[in-house]
Design a protein that fits this description.
The chain contains seven helices and 15 strands. The protein is of the alpha/beta class. The protein folds into two domains: 89 residues, RNA methyltransferase domain (HRMD) like (Transcription Regulator spoIIAA), CATH 3.30.750; 204 residues, Vaccinia Virus protein VP39 (Rossmann fold). A hairpin with a 2-residue loop joins strand 2 and strand 3.
Length: 347
C-alpha cells in the first residue's frame, strides 16, 4: 500500500510539474503574442507613417484583449498607457511582471530605451470630475511632425500629450477647407486645429480655451510653424459661456468651426460645469447662430455613450456622421470618438 501511495505521489508530482510547465509556456506564448503583434504593426505602420509625413503615430492599440495597452511613437520616444481590462478578460490587476514584459517588448521591437519611454495608467474618472489633471512635473517637450506641420508634445506631465492623434483625419479636412475663411476653434486645447486652419490659408481665426497653459502651448505651435499672426486670436475664456454670449450679443460669424468639447468639465474658473450630453442641444443652437450661410461645423466628442438629439441639428442643411472614417488607420480600436460634419443653409 505504501508502494502504491509512492507511485501515486510520483504521478501527482509529475502532473504538477506538467501543469507548471504549461503555465510557464502559456506566459511565454502570451508575451510572444504581444511582441509578434507589436513587431507586425511596427513594420507596417512605420512605412505607412513615412508616406503620411508622420513622426507621431500609434503602433499598438489594445489589439489583443489580454494586453490592454496603447503604445505610441513620438519621434524617438515611446508613450505607453495601460488601460483597465474588460471584465470578460480580467484576471485581476495587471501584474508588475506583465508591465515589465510589455516594456521590454517595446524596447526590443521599437528600439526605444527605457529612459525615452513614458508609462502611464489610464484610470477612468468618476462622471462629474475634471478629466485633465497633471500627472508629472517638468518633463521636457519635444517636436513631432504631422502631414507637413510641427507640434510640441509633452509625454510626461499629463495623461494626454498635447496632440490628439485620433483627430488627424479631421485636421486634414479643416486644412483643405480653410482657405480664405474665418475659423473658430472652440475648446481649442493646444491649437492643433488652428495650426491646420492657418496652414490652409484661413483669413483669420479665433481659438477659445479656459487654460492659459494650453493657450500658451497653442501660441508656441503657431510660432513653431511660422504661422503666428495678429489675425489668429487666442482667447482665454470658459468656452461654454463665451459661446452663449457671442450667440446672443456678438456680431462675428464664422465660415468654419471646430467644436471638440470634453465629455465633462468643471473648474473654479467656470460658472457651473459642462456635460456634453446634457448641454449639446443648447451648444449646437448657439454654434448655428455663429455660422455664416453655408458655413461648416465639425462637432466631435469622445463620450462614446453620446446620443445626438434631433433637436440639436434642427435648421441645419446637412448633417453627416464621419465616424469611423474620421479615425486614422493606426488606431485599431474605432471607439475612440464620434465626429459629425454639419452645414448651415446657404441663405
Amino acid at each position: 500500500m505504501r508502494g502504491g501511495a509512492r507511485v501515486r505521489n510520483r504521478k501527482d508530482r509529475r502532473g504538477m510539474a506538467d501543469e507548471g510547465k504549461q503555465d510557464t509556456e502559456g506566459a511565454a506564448a502570451g508575451t510572444s503574442m504581444f511582441e509578434n503583434r507589436l513587431r507586425k504593426n511596427a513594420k507596417r505602420l512605420r512605412k505607412w507613417a513615412r508616406a503620411q509625413g508622420l513622426t507621431a503615430f500609434r503602433v499598438y492599440d489594445r489589439d489583443i484583449p489580454e494586453y490592454s495597452y496603447a503604445v505610441d511613437l513620438y519621434g524617438d520616444h515611446a508613450h505607453v498607457v495601460e488601460y483597465p481590462r474588460r471584465k470578460a478578460h480580467a484576471k485581476g490587476a495587471s501584474t508588475d511582471s506583465e508591465r515589465a514584459e510589455v516594456l521590454a517588448a517595446v524596447t526590443a521591437v521599437l528600439g526605444v530605451p527605457v529612459e525615452k519611454t513614458s508609462v502611464k495608467t489610464h484610470t477612468p474618472q468618476p462622471w462629474g470630475r475634471s478629466q485633465y489633471g497633471r500627472v508629472g512635473q517638468g518633463s521636457e517637450r519635444l517636436v513631432v511632425e504631422e502631414q507637413g506641420l510641427k507640434f510640441w508634445v509633452n509625454l510626461g506631465d499629463y495623461l494626454d500629450t498635447g496632440l490628439f492623434m485620433d483627430h488627424r483625419n479631421t485636421r486634414a479636412r479643416v486644412r483643405t477647407e480653410a482657405k480664405g475663411k474665418q475659423f473658430l476653434n472652440l475648446f481649442a486645447y493646444t491649437g492643433a486645429f488652428t495650426v491646420y486652419a492657418a496652414a490652409g490659408g484661413a483669413a483669420g481665426s479665433v481659438s477659445v480655451d479656459l487654460s492659459n497653459t494650453y493657450l500658451d502651448w497653442a501660441e508656441d505651435n503657431l510660432v513653431l510653424n511660422t504661422l503666428a499672426d495678429p489675425r489668429h486670436v487666442l482667447i482665454r475664456a470658459d468656452a461654454k459661456a463665451w459661446l452663449e454670449d457671442q450667440a446672443r450679443h456678438g456680431e462675428d460669424r464664422y465660415d468654419l468651426i471646430v467644436c471638440d468639447p470634453p465629455s465633462f468639465s468643471t473648474s473654479k474658473k467656470m460658472s457651473g460645469n459642462f456635460d456634453v450630453q446634457r448641454d449639446h442641444v443648447r451648444m449646437l443652437e448657439h454654434l448655428q447662430a455663429l455660422l455664416s450661410p453655408g458655413g461648416v461645423l465639425y462637432f466631435s466628442t469622445n463620450y462614446l455613450g453620446f446620443e445626438l438629439k434631433d433637436s440639436a441639428t434642427r435648421g441645419l442643411e446637412q448633417v453627416e456622421e464621419l465616424t469611423p472614417r474620421s479615425i486614422p488607420e493606426d488606431f485599431h480600436r474605432k471607439e475612440i470618438h464620434r465626429c459629425w460634419r454639419m452645414v448651415a443653409p446657404s441663405r
